[in-house]
Structures are given as C-alpha cells and as structure tokens.
Design brief:
GO terms for molecular function: DNA binding; DNA-binding transcription factor activity. The protein is of the alpha/beta class. Helices cover about 35% and strands about 25% of the residues. It has 3 domains: about 80 residues, Arc Repressor Mutant, subunit A; about 90 residues, D-Maltodextrin-Binding Protein, domain 2 (3-Layer(aba) Sandwich), CATH 3.40.190.10; about 100 residues, D-Maltodextrin-Binding Protein, domain 2 (3-Layer(aba) Sandwich), CATH 3.40.190.
Length: about 300
C-alpha cells in the first residue's frame, strides 16, 4: 500500500459523492464536474490506497469491502475538516483559574463566592479543588494552584495574602451540658476536655495551648475525624470543640444534640484569606472580584 501523502481532502469528497449516489453520472452532476475527471480522481485514490473502492459494472456501482471500510473514516475526516472554521470562531478562549477552597467555609461566603465565580464565567474558566488549608501554600508555590481561599495565612514573600473576613468561634457542647445558656465563659469549660478535629478543622496552632492555660484539659489523643465521631465524644465525655458559630458544620448540627455557644471571655476567631502568587498579575481582575466576596 502506498503512502497517503498525495491524498487531499477533495479526493475524499469525490469518494463520498460517489458512495452516496452509487452512480458516477449523478455524483459528477452533484459536484458540478464531468464524469471523466471524477473517475480519474477515484482511480487516483484507489491507487494510493492500493485497493479498489467500488465494484463497477455496466449495470451498477457498489462499494467494495475497502470502500465500506473507508466510508466512515472519510465521513469523519471531511466533517472534521469542514468544522474547523466554526470551531476556531467558537473555541473557548477563556483564561484558566485553578481555585482551592477549604473544607469548612462560612455559608454566606460560600454563596457569595459561587455568585462571583459565575459572574466571571464569561472571561475565565474555573477549576475548583477542595483541600485542607494546610496544603494550599505549597500547591500555590508549585504552580498547581492559581488562587486559594484559606484559613491559614502565609509569610512567604512569593505569595500575597488578602484578609477576607474574621468570624468568631464558639464551643460545641452536648446540648444537655448547659441548658438554656446563650453563651459560656472559660470558667464554665474548666475541667472539660478540648477535642481536636481533623486536619481541615485546623483553627490555629496555639489554640490548644491557649485553652490549657485557662484550665481546659488538652489531650492530643482526643481527636475526632468527622461529625459522627464528634457527637459520640460529646455525648459520652465531658468535652467540647471549637467551630465557627455560623459554619455549615455548626448549622447542620441537631440542636437537640448539640449547642454552639460563644465564649464571652475568649478572643477566638477564624480568619479567611485569599492567597495568590505575587508575580501572577494576569489574575488581577479575578482577585478584585473575589476579594469582595466576603462575610460582612
């Protein structure tokens, strides 16, 4: 079999016309050409492929076995070729934005963030990745992310940090511990065990030390991995954990089982940041929109 270097798109168009009509005269008429040059182009194609594409007789024209095999391939090539101008005009020319979001996010911020992303869809194509805040800095520096909504800031001068908002933390306790109370003090929690959550619940590296100094029991082994585990701890032991008062996790808890109560004399907040690579100025318009998607 010869090479296909001299087969051009018009050879395939001629073949498809004859395959469609199964008649050289009608095919030539449809192509606005005479029969002899059409027959010559088909013979040229057959010579290049090394096989006859049609069984010809004085009474009929049929596709040969090779013609049957070529038909879907030719249709695909010609349709793909014809679609090139349209695809070039309509191709997605939006800039890509890889955005990381943390596992715990304020519901109001989540809604505003979603609305901001949708408002930017005309110019940017977002790829979202949910991950712990602890891994976002390295992902930004390795260029596997473009932007990150994080609960941890950074001191790396290759990254820029914008504070979006701060939200207060409350004590998550079994509902039976403080019935009727709307807030607590640290004295109320003296003798309670502080439960540390999974990595994505990280609320500050010195939080446990701060609580221990106020008489709260801190055991590094007392750690839960999900809400179900937290509920078992709270119901079975004299314990509590901290969570943003208005987080999706806190709002999803059954008030008959748990209460999320502010601690009046504990300054405890969760800060949410927007982090980017300082040198990556192409995303300035995106940053300008996302920095205003915050909790007031």
């Amino acid at each position: 079999m010869g090479t296909l270097l001299t087969v051009e798109i018009h050879h395939l168009r001629y073949f498809l016309a004859v395959a469609r009509e199964l008649n050289f005269t009608r095919a030539a008429r449809a192509l606005n050409m005479s029969v002899p040059p059409l027959s010559q182009r088909i013979r040229d194609l057959e010579r290049e492929l090394g096989e006859p594409l049609f069984d010809r007789s004085t009474h009929h024209t049929r596709l040969s076995e090779a013609g049957e095999a070529l038909l879907p391939l030719a249709e695909s090539v010609v349709s793909g070729f014809d679609a090139i101008p349209v695809r070039m005009r309509t191709r997605d020319q939006r800039a890509d934005v890889r955005l990381a979001i943390p596992d715990v996010l304020n519901p109001a911020h989540r809604r505003q963030l979603s609305e901001s992303i949708r408002a930017l869809e005309g110019s940017y194509r977002f790829t979202l990745r949910q991950m712990p805040s602890l891994g976002m800095e390295s992902a930004l520096l390795s260029n596997s992310l473009d932007l990150a909504v994080s609960h941890l800031g950074t001191s790396d001068d290759r990254l820029s940090t914008i504070v979006l908002y701060r939200e207060p933390l409350g004590a998550v306790v079994d509902a039976s511990r403080f019935p009727g109370r709307t807030s607590l003090t640290l004295a109320d929690l003296r003798g309670f065990q502080y439960l540390q959550g999974p990595r994505h619940w990280d609320l500050g590296s010195r939080r446990a030390e701060q609580l221990a100094a106020k008489g709260v029991l801190v055991d590094p082994e007392a750690q839960f991995s999900d809400v179900s585990g937290l509920l078992i701890f709270l119901r079975s032991t004299k314990s509590f954990t901290l969570a943003p008062v208005e987080s999706a996790t806190a709002l999803a808890l059954d008030p008959n089982e748990c209460a999320v109560l502010p601690i009046d004399d504990l300054v405890a907040t969760l800060t949410t940041f927007l982090i980017r690579r300082t040198a990556d100025t192409r995303l300035d318009p995106v940053v300008e929109v996302l920095r205003h998607a915050r909790v007031s």
